[in-house]
Amino acid sequence: MGSTTSRLAVIAALATLWPTYASPQQGGTGASGGLQVDIGVSTTLKYDDNFALTPGGGAGDTMISDTNLSFGLTSRNSAHDLSILATGVLRFADIPGRSVSGLEDPTLKLRYVTDSVNSRLTLTGSYRDVDREFLNPFQVEREEQQFGTLVGNGGTLRDTNLGLKYEVGLTAPLGFTIDLKHAEKDYSNVLNPRIFDTETNSATGTLKFRLSPVATARLVAGLSRYEANDAFQTRRTTQDLSVGLAYEINSVLTFDGQIGLTDVETVRNTGTTNRDGLSSDLRLTKALPNGSAFGAFKSSVNQNGRRSTLTFGRDLQLPRGNLRASLGVTDADIGDMGWIASIAYNIQLPSDTLTLSLDRSASTNNNDQEVVDTRIGVDYTHPIDTISRLRLSLDWGEQDTSTSIFAPGDTVELTTLQATYSRDLTADWNLTGGVEYRQRKETGLADADSTSLFVTLGRNFSYRP
Predict the structure, then answer these.
(1) pLDDT tens readout for residues 168-203
(2) Residue 313 CB partners (closer than 8 Å, separation 6+)
(3) What is the C-alpha separation between 180 and 185, in angstroms, rounded?
């Protein structure tokens, strides 16, 4: 793995030299098809009075100099779609108790799609080796489009993901899809016993039958294997078998439902447990003149037993923006019934832009705890003139874990407030400065907060060789 990281470092370092020679060939990001290169470089200087969010107050001030380097390559034509993104951070940081220097956070992402009239092959992959103290948990969730833990407790994370999906019979009466996934998280120098190495491998096969122009049936079989290097040396195997139907009832009403059997076997050094039962996922959607409305019911089985969720939602097209909202209730064998919700509201004012979001979900984590995650986000942008703008943002998150037989429950609350001023120095270069306030509250620990000042100078551009 060390040689891979070294090669990535060389590529990222060389990328900073390319803008000087490549500018005359600049083609812009709006062009479609063919080969395109995207290069970015930005330098950030940051001061923070409690960078590690140490409870009760920090041990001293932190100074960080980060030069973010990115190199992207895309190639598109009628037969394939390839995208590669390599990034890294040239970091010099003076943190109480340690110093950091050199290339950090090497990241590589790959996506390749090739298709024909009746088949499609998709390959995906990603690799990241990152210092967890430098992760913004809200940004991680936005990038990965999934809820995760509120990052903390330091240490490093090496995250590897691979995927292969092959679809055949895209336009035929009979179609088949095989979806293979591999996910591996390796931690080092992490003191929290609830954070440990995990590996998940899964395979899902789907057979589709197009019964008519308005009805498609499917048979789905899935197998997942989860392994954890926790105190119990957990090994979990999940098997699913289900049948489903997608049906257009009329021109505005559609139904999509699936029902099947799930079997979960968990093997630990303390013994073996089994959970099995009926699972279902039913959804009814109605198209409306200004959007759509839906109702959904889902019941699933995991290592803790059954969780059932009922939700109703509305997608609304407004004159100045869009509103997507859902509200529901969820109940599990462990814990009490609770409410869940998801709201995303984007409004375009005469000159300003405002985005509001709320997400509240319930799930089971790797420690067999029932977790309620709540996130609130507010983002406001105001253009001062044609070359400068002001941005204010708020991110708030709370993670509440109920007590289980394996680990005690607690609550983690994290707040981030940020105000920035950005100015376009030239057509290519941008300057951003701002202030950020963070606060962390956790059960059994003193509150932690920090204030930071930062300034960033950066450039992004695209060209076609």
Answers:
(1) 999 899 999 999 999 999 999 988 787 899 999 999
(2) 293, 294, 295, 296, 324, 325, 326, 327, 342
(3) 17
pLDDT value for 194: 78
For residue 20, give every residue at least 6 positions away whose Cβ sits within 8 Å of its Cβ, in sequence order, or none. Answer: none
Which residues touch 150 (CB under 8 Å, ≥6 apart)?
A: 137, 397, 399, 412, 414, 440
Calpha distance 327→214 (Å, rounded): 29
**Distance, CA of 138 to CA of 261 (rounded, Å):** 35
Match 């959007």 to its residue by tokens: 291
CA distances from 136 to 35, 66, 127, 132, 262 (A): 32, 15, 18, 9, 35
- Residue in 437, 432, 434 with CA at minimum distance from that of residue 42: 432
**pTM for this prediction:** 0.85
> pLDDT digit string (tens) for 406-417?
445 678 899 999
Dihedral Cα 382, 384, 388, 391, nearest 10 deg: -20
Give the chain's largest Cα–Cα span: 69
**Residue at token pair 């690799």:** 127
- Predicted confidence band at 34 (pLDDT cuts at 50, 70, 90)? confident
3-state secondary structure of 252: coil
Per the model's pLDDT, the better-predicted residue between 13 and 400 turns out to be 400
Q: Is residue 18 classed as helix, strand or coil in its secondary structure?
A: helix
The amino acid at 342: S
Q: Are 405 and 369 contacting, i.e. CB atoms less than 8 angstroms apart?
A: no
